[in-house]
Amino acid sequence: MKITAGMGTITDYETLVDAGADEVFAGYVPLSWRRRYGSSLPLNRREVLFYHVQIGTLEDMKILREKVKRLGVPVTITFNSLTYSPNQIRLIVGYIRELAELGFRDVIVADWNLILTLLREQVACNLHLSGEVGEWNRETLRLLSMEMHGEACRITRIIFLRKNTIAEMKRLVSAGLELGLCSEFEAFLMNERCHYTGGFCNSLHADEMLHLCQLEYRLAPVEETAFEAKHRDEDDEGEATSEQSGESVDGEMLGTSGCGLCALWQLRDAGITHLKIVGRGASAECVARDVSAVKQALAMLTDVETEEHFQKNMRETFYPNGCPNNCYYNL
Question: Residue 40: what pLDDT?
Answer without folding.
Answer: 74
